[in-house]
Amino acid sequence: MNLDVIRSCAERPEPHRLFEAVSLSLEGNDDAKAEICGAMIWSSFAAPSSIPVVFDLIFGPRNKISDHNSLGKALETDLPEGFWHAFRSTLVGPENGYDASSITLAVASLNLSLDPRYAELSECAAKEHPGAVGASKKKIPTMLSMTELKAQPLGSLAGDLHDMWLDNGFDPEVLDRDAIGLRDLAPSIRYLNTRILQMHDVWHLMAGYQTTSLHEMAISAFQLAQFGHNYSAMFLSTICTMSLLKEPIGFIIVLQNIAEAWQHGCQSPAFMAIDWETEWHMDIESLRVKYGIRPFSGSFPADLLEKVANTT
To answer: Which of 196, 219, 150 is CA-nearest to residue 161?
Structure first.
């Protein structure tokens, strides 16, 4: 398997064929695996309005095929040669491998090599997604304050978030919002990306995702199902392609992990609609009861990839 094979599949998929490709991939069919990655790449980097349908065809419940009528109408851009060059380099990665920050920056940088029309299509897709309603009119939130979080009661959501950041040496936001150019984005995408940077670790705590490699993939699928976050789609497309090319033996595990988190996101209440700052004082279990949030329960140990890495 090589990237050129996957590239030949990066086009508008036929819904039933893509749905069936998942079953074929479980049987070890390499062509089906390439078809899955190709469809993910096409939707993530060329046709953002198709992301919910394409990802549901791949990762949704196997006892149903989602409404796919909109797939044929989804507007798309070209995937420029410059994108494929940048994507290939991203798949190779740094000599010592990626960490959480470097993979995030690498995937985010792929935006620079996309067709100029992609930004407009992405903004339109964000406005249409039910989980992102009203994002274009919402005020851009200010940075969270460690002092404010620390002032909340012991055992509260804010207190747990503060301790999580302190104990792990995390920053209040994953990346500097100005350094990565969020200020220049269209209103909906700007708000969604800013809020995700700010709330990512809150959602880790509330939705029950740990900060391991497998669960970082999973929470990206959760976020994607929740509000169609195009960066999450790009990240998952990159990770799946990387797995197929570099660690094909683990490809099915990656798919199942993403599928379980995608379905978790579809079944959970809209996290983007919750005003988390007004809930800082409450504990996590009480908040889960209040909003009907079920924590993630995947089939694999959260630290599976770390354990595998330590034994090789």
So the answer is: 150
Q: What is the reported pTM?
A: 0.92
Read off the DSSP letter of residue 295.
P
- 131: pLDDT strictly greater than 80: yes
Give 139's DSSP letter.
Answer: P
Distance, in Å, from the CA atom of 267 to the CA atom of 293, rounded to the nearest integer, reads 9
As a whole number of angstroms, the distance between CA 192 and CA 260 comes to 23
Instruction: Give the C-alpha separation, 189 to 283, whole Å.
Output: 30
Under the banding of pLDDT at 50, 70 and 90, the label for residue 62 is: confident
CA atoms of 106 and 238, how far apart (whole Å): 10
Q: Which long-range contacts (CB under 8 A, 24 or more apart) does 70-76 make?
A: 71/12, 71/13, 71/15, 72/12, 74/12, 74/43, 74/47, 74/49, 74/50, 75/47, 75/49, 75/121, 75/124, 76/12, 76/42, 76/46, 76/47, 76/50, 76/121
Six token digits for residue 261: 């988190």
Domains: count for the chain: 1
CB 90 within 8 A of CB 214: no
- DSSP three-state, residue 4: helix
Residues in the chain: 312
Tens-place pLDDT, residues 201-260: 999 999 999 999 999 999 999 999 998 888 999 999 999 999 999 999 999 999 999 999
Distance CA 82, CA 95 (A): 22
Whole-number pLDDT of residue 180: 62
Cβ-proximal residues to 168 (8 Å cutoff; 6+ apart), any chain? 211
Q: Contact, 160 vs 205, CB < 8 A?
A: yes
Question: What is the percentage of the chain residues whose pLDDT exceeds 70?
Answer: 95
- Write out the two tokens for 180: 């990565």
Structure tokens belonging to residue 33: 């695996």
Q: How far apart are CA 291 and CA 287, in angstroms?
A: 6
Structural domain that includes position 218:
3-311
Q: DSSP label at 300?
A: S
